């Protein structure tokens, strides 16, 4: 099959200027969902980014700084280009300041806030006269720039939405990108369809990018070079492997290293799914090597290090036997690309580097075919490639696997408990139709013991903690209120089917302050 056409229409795009707000990624995702491709840039990159001729809009994000204190360093060219500009929170205040309005500091508005619409406008089509939006600001626009009109005000009388009369420039004080703003998605689709004017035929559709991704891989890889792909059964690495195989055929070599830390039945399922997709996978069962090195290790970061090092060692042994290997394809996603360049000096809470460092170890060049995409877009690409839904909708699973779900000393007994209990959690959520509605669901185990009764006898056993979270991007997460019936089934199945467990607890702490995985 020849997928090598290059005449695919490249999408027009929005540039999202990231002023350091925690929601900049959400803005880009909302724009893409609404049908307009969006990329994040730092303020100092804006001028260069504007020179590209496919720019359809600029969105200025929120941010932690104050326009009253910080020197503004974005190019005023955005206001002259006649492309639509949307400022959000800090971005709204920045527009006001740059174009001659007045910004002041006030007592602020935080959380759910009522706003009243004063005028109809394409951006606000479909909104009621009164809406609840989510605010988080101290500074406010006290006077709009000349030539701007006020479209909505908040309860305190602050400007909630303003618009230039002559040019397509908007400022909104609230955050339409967060889910607490009920009509936020509608505002983004209004912006994309009615303000930017993206027609249905021009909508951004990640699956339509498959031919150009394939073509780029083909263009990069030399005619006799092989591409190794480390597959884990996750959607990112599987999609990477399938795309690579489409591009270079049998010169794509998927390698699956079983580290012994997978979920129950997972290695078998992964192998047969990949086989059905026509991939000829090199399978290496190195579980004994990994588990022997992990036995008794208490510190999770040390476990991550051991796993990373052992993985590289095993992978290198396999790679050395593959003649002509020149590349390693990785399933790096857009947030990883942005974060690795953007959060300089950020506190490293956990080291999620998985296969980072591997290419240097092996002397391979790196292919990252998914580096422009978000996870939900990779899922859409996966579906378009014909991957089974089971695989596409699989929850994210950490590279170090169940090793990060065992608290305290690492033992094989606790690993088995986490494995079997996690399986039950997943099965019961599927049965209740909840599996695909949550981000992750699993069981973790530590050293705490609880006294139980089995028959008439005292039986001391482990405490298993069930963690179910909803999340958009794993940066923040919350736990859903599961029905008592679902929790009861999970509890009774775990205590009866997993030996050595007498108590099941449900984790009710969001992220932050807790992280998703226990360690
Ligand atoms: P935390 O626990 O930091 O997890 O809230 C956020 C997301 O990352 C996953 N996670 C990992 N993924 N290697 C990975 O590839 C790791 O070492 C790792 N630790 C956590 C976690 O499952 C969640 O989706």
TrEMBL record:
The answer on whether this UniProt entry bears the keyword Protease reads: no
Protein name per UniProt: GMP synthase [glutamine-hydrolyzing]
Does Transferase count among this protein's keywords?
Answer: no
EC class (word)? ligase
Query: What Enzyme Commission number(s) does the record list for this chain?
Result: 6.3.5.2
**Known catalytic reactions:** XMP + L-glutamine + ATP + H2O = GMP + L-glutamate + AMP + diphosphate + 2 H(+)
Matches recorded under SUPFAM superfamilies: Adenine nucleotide alpha hydrolases-like, Class I glutamine amidotransferase-like
**Which GO terms fall under molecular function for this chain's record?**
ATP binding; GMP synthase activity; transferase activity
Identify which residues the record assigns to the active site: 89, 175, 177
Q: Where is the GMPS ATP-PPase domain?
A: 204-394
Write out the function statement from the record: Catalyzes the synthesis of GMP from XMP.
Annotated HAMAP family: GMP_synthase
Q: Where along the chain is ATP bound?
A: 232-238
Q: Which Gene3D superfamilies match?
A: 3.30.300.10, 3.40.50.880, HUPs (3.40.50.620)
**Which PROSITE patterns does the entry mention?**
GATASE_TYPE_1, GMPS_ATP_PPASE
Protein's pathway:
Purine metabolism; GMP biosynthesis; GMP from XMP (L-Gln route): step 1/1
Q: Which InterPro entries does this chain map to?
A: Class_I_gatase-like (IPR029062), GATASE (IPR017926), GMP_synth_C (IPR001674), GMP_synth_GATase (IPR004739), GMP_synthase (IPR022955), GMPS_ATP_PPase_dom (IPR025777), NAD/GMP_synthase (IPR022310), Rossmann-like_a/b/a_fold (IPR014729)
Q: Which GO terms describe its cellular component?
A: cytosol
Record keywords, A-Z: ATP-binding, Glutamine amidotransferase, GMP biosynthesis, Ligase, Nucleotide-binding, Purine biosynthesis
């Amino acid at each position: 099959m020849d997928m090598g056409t290059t005449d695919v229409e490249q999408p027009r795009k929005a540039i999202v200027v990231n002023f350091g707000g925690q929601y900049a990624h959400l803005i880009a995702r909302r724009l893409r969902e609404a049908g307009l491709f969006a990329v994040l840039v730092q303020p100092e990159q804006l001028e260069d980014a504007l020179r590209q001729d496919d720019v359809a809009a600029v969105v200025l994000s929120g941010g932690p700084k104050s326009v009253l204190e910080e020197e503004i360093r974005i190019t005023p060219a955005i206001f002259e280009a006649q492309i639509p500009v949307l400022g959000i929170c800090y971005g709204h205040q920045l527009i006001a300041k740059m174009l001659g309005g007045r910004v002041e500091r006030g007592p602020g508005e935080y959380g759910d806030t009522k706003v009243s619409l004063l005028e109809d406008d394409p951006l606000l089509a479909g909104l009621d006269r009164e809406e609840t939006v989510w605010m988080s600001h101290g500074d406010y626009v006290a006077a709009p720039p000349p030539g701007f009109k006020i479209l909505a005000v908040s309860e305190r009388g602050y400007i909630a939405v303003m618009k230039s009369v002559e040019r397509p420039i908007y400022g909104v004080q609230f955050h339409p990108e967060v889910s607490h703003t009920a009509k936020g998605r509608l505002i983004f689709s209004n912006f994309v369809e009615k303000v930017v004017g993206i027609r249905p035929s021009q909508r951004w559709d990640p699956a339509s990018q498959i031919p150009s991704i394939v073509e780029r891989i083909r263009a990069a890889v030399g005619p006799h070079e092989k591409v190794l792909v480390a597959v884990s059964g996750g959607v990112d690495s599987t999609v990477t492997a399938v795309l690579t195989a489409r591009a270079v055929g049998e010169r794509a070599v998927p390698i699956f290293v079983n580290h012994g830390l997978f979920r129950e039945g997972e290695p078998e399922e992964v192998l047969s799914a990949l086989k059905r997709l026509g991939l000829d996978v090199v399978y290496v069962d190195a579980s004994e090597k990994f588990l022997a090195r992990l036995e008794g290790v208490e510190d999770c970061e040390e476990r991550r290090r051991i796993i990373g090092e052992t993985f590289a060692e095993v992978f290198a042994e396999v790679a050395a036997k593959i003649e002509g290997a020149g590349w390693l394809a990785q399933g790096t996603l857009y947030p990883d690309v942005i974060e690795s360049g953007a959060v300089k000096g950020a506190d490293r809470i956990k080291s999620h580097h998985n296969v980072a460092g591997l290419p240097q170890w092996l002397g391979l060049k790196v292919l990252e075919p998914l580096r422009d995409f978000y996870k939900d877009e990779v899922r859409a690409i996966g579906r378009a490639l014909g991957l089974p839904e089971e695989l596409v909708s699989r929850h994210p699973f950490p590279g170090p696997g169940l090793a990060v779900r065992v608290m305290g000393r690492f033992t094989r007994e606790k690993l088995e408990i986490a494995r079997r209990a996690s399986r039950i959690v997943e099965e019961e959520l599927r049965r209740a139709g909840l599996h695909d509605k949550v981000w992750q669901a699993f069981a973790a185990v530590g050293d705490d013991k609880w006294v139980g009764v089995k028959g008439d006898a005292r039986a001391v056993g482990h405490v298993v903690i069930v963690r179910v979270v909803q999340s958009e991007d794993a940066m923040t997460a919350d736990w859903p209120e599961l029905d008592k019936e679902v929790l009861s089934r999970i509890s009774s199945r775990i205590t009866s089917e997993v030996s050595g467990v007498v108590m099941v607890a449900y984790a009710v702490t969001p992220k932050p302050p807790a992280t998703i995985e226990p360690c």
